[in-house]
Amino acid sequence: MVNLDLARLQFAVTTIYHFFFVPLTLGLSILIAIMQTQYVRTGDETYKRMTKFWGKLFLINFAMGVVTGIVQEFQFGMNWSEYSRFVGDIFGAPLAIEALMAFFIESTFLGVWTFGWDKLPKRVHLASIWLVAIASNLSALWILIANSFMQEPVGYALRNGRAEMTDFIALITNPHVIVQYPHVLFSGITTAAFFVLGISAWHLLRQSKNTALFRRSAQWAIVYGLIGSIMVAMIGHQQAQHMVKAQPMKMAAAEALWDSESPASMSLFTIGDEPGRKDVFSIRVPGLLSFLAYNRFEGEVKGINDLQAEYEATYGPGNYVPPIAISYWSFRLMVGAGMLMIALALFGLYSVIQKKLDKSPRFLRLLPFMIFLPYLANTAGWLLTELGRQPWIVFGLQRVDDAVSPNVAPEIVLLSLVGFTLVYGVLMIADIYLLAKFARADADPTPLPEEVQPAPAASY
Amino acid sequence: MELNTLWFILIAVLFIGFFFLEGFDYGVGVLLPFLGKNDDDRRIIINSIGPFWDGNEVWLLTAGGAMFAAFPQMYATMFSGFYLALFLLLITLILRGVAFEFRSKDERPGWRNLWDWMIFIGSLVPAILWGVALSNLARGVAIDADMNYVGTFWDLLSPYSLLSGVASLAAFTLHGALFLSLKTEGEMAEKAHKTATRLWIPTVVVILVFVVASYASTDIFQKLGVNPGIAPLGAFAALLSIGYFIRERRHGWAFIASGVTLALSIFTIFSGLYPRLIISNLNHDWDLTIENASSSPYTLQVMTVVALIFVPIVLLYQGWTYWVFRKRITKQDVHY
């Protein structure tokens, strides 16, 4: 069992780390593509400088996302070989399609975009960043199709001791991915917005050169972030309603709802006794959970104890309760961070409309620290999604302890866990150092009309 | 054609594409400390593969994904079995990938030196590991009745597999030297030309020794018989022709010839494996084959449709990028 715990820890470390970089890639690629589109349409040099300034940060972040993604693709085979054998027929397909349909485009055209500034016609060069943006977000779709099968298996039959695909269309229109994908897409947009907003605010506060560039970036980011954060919340609501139906245990854990209630109350703050499955202290709002689940103040939401009994009857004896405290608190962190982001974006919009964004030093001073909010929400969201599914690796079909590689010694998993953690740790320092360096650098300080020198051809 | 066979061929094609393309950028990375004596030179060397290496690496990811989708048992057996080797490969590829992006972002020589070493190690180690991995596939490894690898990491490092690692390193480095001679000008192109000249004979020797060792260690050539057929003979002819083209200073042809050598060698190994995917040296009943390791017919059908649409498209646009960046890299380009 040491093996299992180490493999799970390795998955947690490598996946959470990978997902530090992915959302920014998803959202920022679109934003940069829009900036460059404006440049090509209007010829306004400020847009070109915006594209280049944010593009540099994008490239640093992108590289980290790509290299940590390689580990993601291979560790299913390394640590989870029984899982790979059991669901390979279904799970491998979206990963392979992702590589063929999206990742190839992303990597190839990022090279074209980086090195093609002076070598390509403007519109062809613009098309290359759009291809990167579209392919990155398409990439996420295929990965989430794979993940959604783990949450809510569809389009399969159990044959030859494994899950075999019977309906590809059902797999890619999984009701779970229909709500999960837009949630991730808009959280990427929100992440990019708060990243751009925080850095722009820092420059506005310092009155650095090229204030125009950062003012415009901040304005864009506020609108982008407002759209993103509100959409994330609205889709998150849909997701929760779907979760009540498809993965009621995850919802019960996220709410620390021990026993079924009708109408169900929602916990605002609970200190629970997890092994004893009871509240120590709890503040609850009557009927609110039913309202969130069904849009009306009535209706039963199932509790942990009843679901446990139900699952024992269906799947045999065992513990079907996920880690409750982490699920409960990560749900609240995610929602709390999300609400705060909506509030910040609304206040930002108000400041822009009142034309006093530049004159709100306290708000501007706050914003760089708020860059961590989307990261917190993204990580907490995935913790809930993955931990709330436990003990299953594929809900209802395979348990995590049946999925781990049987032939890999614990020392070896430990070695690779330590190795990845160390390398990832060092790279995080280098990455943050570079991001901070280029985020604080003045954008191209030359006065606008004279700017004629070609960009460097050597980007590395 | 039966879909299992088609997928065996497709995965072979993906690996051939990967070795042909990533082969030269590994080679360029290995040559970096030897040919790049100052920062300008190193920038020229690195920028010669700048727009390409990432796209090239996707061939590996696609091959991995295709293996997972079409032969999940092979994916599970190989990656859990070759765990430490794969871990080493992943770590070096991670360091290499960020090194390209990070190195120029700071002026300090210490910073650049550090990442240049990462590019070197991240090219050297995978170039050797791929040879080791292929030779183990060709020779067979300890696979039990449940398709699980039961040997250790050290069992994978036999003299034969290490020889194979040296052979792949030599072939990639020569391939990289030829690519550099095509993509650079003046002094650097001359240095690359001289390196290729010097590397050619040792490469031929190592590969010949490897072929002889393969006759002794694997059944692949026994299956082929005395007259091994067009592919291995073609690989050998291409390998010999490299020397001629280098002497004639026809670097384009020499590069194509080294690519053909790589492609036909991989082809030979895969056709020797067929219809097996991973050979068990404990009991041949436990071999993983294209039948017992494959996905269901339905999944193969779906994947076939996807692959037949997208592989040609990928080839088209990747080919286009090589055309866009066809010009040689000069000192003027990198002075900025």
Q: What ranges of chain B have pLDDT less than 50 throughout 5 or more consecutive residues?
A: none
Whole-angstrom Rg of chain B: 20 Å
Number of helices of chain B: 13
Name the assembly state: heterodimer
- Total strand count of chain A, please? 6
Q: State the separation between the terminal residues of chain A, measured CA to CA.
A: 45 Å
- What is the percentage of strand-forming residues of chain B? under 5%
Could you say which overall geometry of chain B the principal axes of the C-alpha atoms support? Answer: globular
Task: Give the CA-CA distance, first to last residue of chain B.
Answer: 54 Å
3D structure, described in words:
The complex is a heterodimer of chains A (460) and B (336). Chain A has 14 helices and 6 strands. In chain A, a hairpin with a 3-residue loop joins strand 5 and strand 6. By secondary structure, chain A is mainly α. The longest helix of chain B has 33 residues. The N and C termini of chain B lie far apart (54 Å). Chains A and B meet through helix 2, helix 3 and helix 14 of A and helix 2, helix 3, helix 4, helix 5 and helix 12 of B.
Index terms:
heterodimer; A: 460 residues; mainly alpha; two-stranded antiparallel ribbon; 6% strand; B: 336 residues; 13 helices; 2 strands
How do you describe this structure in short?
The complex is a heterodimer of chains A (460) and B (336). Chain A is mostly helical and 460 residues long.
Write the layout of secondary structure elements.
The complex is a heterodimer of chains A (460) and B (336).
Chain A: H1 2-42, H2 45-79, H3 81-115, H4 122-151, E1 156-159, E2 162-165, H5 168-172, H6 175-206, H7 211-246, H8 248-255, E3 266-273, E4 278-285, H9 288-294, H10 304-315, H11 324-353, H12 361-366, H13 372-387, E5 392-394, E6 398-399, H14 410-440
Antiparallel strand pairs in A: 1-2, 3-4, 5-6
Helix pairs in contact in A: 1-2, 1-4, 1-6, 1-13, 1-14, 2-3, 2-7, 2-14, 3-4, 4-6, 6-7, 6-13, 7-8, 7-11, 8-11, 11-13
Chain B: H1 3-35, H2 39-49, H3 53-70, H4 72-81, H5 83-102, H6 109-139, H7 159-183, H8 186-217, H9 220-224, H10 230-247, H11 251-273, E1 276-278, E2 288-289, H12 297-324, H13 331-334
Antiparallel strand pairs in B: 1-2
Helix pairs in contact in B: 1-2, 1-3, 1-6, 1-7, 1-11, 1-12, 3-4, 5-6, 6-7, 7-8, 7-11, 8-10, 10-11
